[in-house]
Amino acid sequence: MSKILKGVATAGLKFRLVDAKEQVVGRLAAQLSVILQGKDKVQFAPHLDIGDVVVVKNAQHVVFTGKKWKQKLYRHHTGFPGGLKERSARLQFEKDPTEILRKAVYGMLPKNNLRDARARKLRIFPDEGHPFEKHPQLVAWEMPPRKLRANKEFYDLPEEYEPMNPEAYRKRFWHMMNAEQQQRVLQHERNQQAGSEPQQ
Question: Could you tell me how far CA 94 lies from the centroid of its own chain?
């Protein structure tokens, strides 16, 4: 155990066990960076390294949204002229399944002197097995639910309501109305157009 966390001060810290199975890489990495920085603690301070140790299992089962497996590229330079190398997320995953999540978390940590020390507290394993199973401070951690913005319907219009400019009203609020409200606004627009036509 001491060899695995060599150079990491673990006194007073918890070990957070995270299951990465079927988790989106970016969303998971954002939450892990918060834990590594200690932002979920009351005594958080940006100049202190008080983040807990994070143990991630099933890293080979993470997922990407969209077409990132083909389109996302990882680049590095050899230091020689023309030495820019790149590989897709799929090739990087085949080479090392844990490196994708590690790079994502490392990129979300603040770029300061504490970055490497915080990154050393992240231990990622490709499958269920890991050497921290019997650690007394190991605590399971679950991904918080996503905060999705609810698609609320537009407020109910009174029966006698007629917008002064139905065309502008329709362009502004059309996507927020239900079918009945849309029909009423269209009817108001037709009535206004009919009333504005000169009588022969």
Answer: 23
Please tell me the distance from the alpha carbon of residue 132 to that of residue 110, in angstroms, as a whole number.
27
Please name which of 141, 138, 142, 140 lies closest in space to residue 15, comparing C-alpha atoms.
138
SS3 for 76?
Answer: strand
CA distance 116 to 111: 9
Distance CA 50, CA 36 (A): 8
Tens of pLDDT along the chain (200 residues)? 556 777 788 888 999 999 999 999 999 999 999 999 999 999 999 999 999 999 999 999 999 988 999 999 999 999 999 999 999 999 999 999 999 999 999 999 999 999 999 999 999 999 999 989 888 889 999 988 877 555 555 555 566 666 677 777 777 777 677 777 778 778 877 877 776 655 44
Amino acid letter, residue 153:
E
Q: What angle do CA 115, 123, 19 make, to 5 degrees?
A: 120
Q: What angle do CA 185, 186, 189 make, to 5 degrees?
A: 90
Query: Which DSSP symbol is given to 57?
Result: E
